[in-house]
Design a protein that fits this description.
Elements: H1 2-19, E1 34-35, E2 44-45, H2 50-68, H3 73-77, H4 82-90, H5 92-95, H6 97-108
Antiparallel strand pairs: 1-2
Domain TM2: 57-104
InterPro entries: TM2
Subcellular location: Membrane
């Protein structure tokens, strides 16, 4: 009986976590990036180069992979197709192989969403 309850709880947890995830994250264009100055009256607009924006996006994807790869957080962030993301979660990253391929693609910058 306890095993059945544990299994049902784990199944409920697996189904509900992706439903409440805050992904995909909408990113702003590089030209629209603003920074806040210590004084609120002096708000300065700062243009960010596309290379710096790509590096920031790559670092964010890498950190999401390191901490949340079983939930495909990096894939949601980089706007991969929803079906593939769900398959990634259900197969535990293709038994880890798919996850390692994603890591290599993120590090080299060849992932389609970067």
């Amino acid at each position: 009986m306890n095993l059945r309850i544990t299994f049902l709880f784990a199944l409920l947890l697996m189904v509900s976590i992706p439903a409440f995830a805050g992904f995909p994250v909408e990113r702003r264009a590089a030209a629209e990036t603003t920074t806040l100055v210590a004084n609120e009256d002096e708000a300065a607009d700062e243009l960010v180069s596309p290379a710096a924006y790509a590096l920031d996006s790559q670092m964010t994807a890498l950190l999401l992979w390191v901490f949340l790869w079983p939930f495909a957080a990096h894939r949601w962030y980089l706007k991969s197709p929803i079906g593939w993301n769900i398959l990634f979660i259900l197969t535990f990253g293709g038994l880890g192989i798919w996850a390692i391929v994603d890591l290599i693609d993120i590090i080299t910058g060849s992932y389609p969403g970067l």
